[in-house]
Every structure is written in structure tokens, then in C-alpha cells.
Design brief:
This protein is of the alpha+beta class and 56 residues long. The chain has two helices and two strands, in the order H-E-E-H.
């Protein structure tokens, strides 16, 4: 993931059901996540990007 790889922000480990195995048992997968909505600058950067590249 690019966001947590380039900016030193808190990363949380989450898990989600991602399928089933051959016996029908749920398979859980862990992944790392950054909640970008907790950082005001992320939303500001997104709006600036959309404004600049709105015609593409």
C-alpha cells in the first residue's frame, strides 16, 4: 500500500473473511490498513488532485 509506505502514519492490522477453504470453512486474512479519513490533509490533497485533473 502506497499511503503507509510513504508517510509515517499509524498502521493497524485488520482481518477480513476472504473466502472459504475446500471444507467450507471461512478463511480469514490479515492486512495492514491506514484510515486516511483521520488525516485532514489527505482529504485536502484528494480534493486538490480532483480539481487539477477533473477533465482526465
Amino acid at each position: 500500500m502506497l499511503l503507509e509506505a510513504t508517510i509515517p502514519r499509524k498502521v493497524e492490522t485488520c482481518s477480513a473473511a476472504t473466502g472459504t477453504d475446500d471444507n467450507g470453512k471461512t478463511v480469514w486474512t490479515e492486512y495492514k490498513n491506514v484510515d486516511p479519513d483521520t488525516y485532514d490533509d489527505f482529504n485536502d490533497l484528494g480534493q486538490a488532485f480532483e480539481k487539477q485533473f477533473s477533465n482526465e
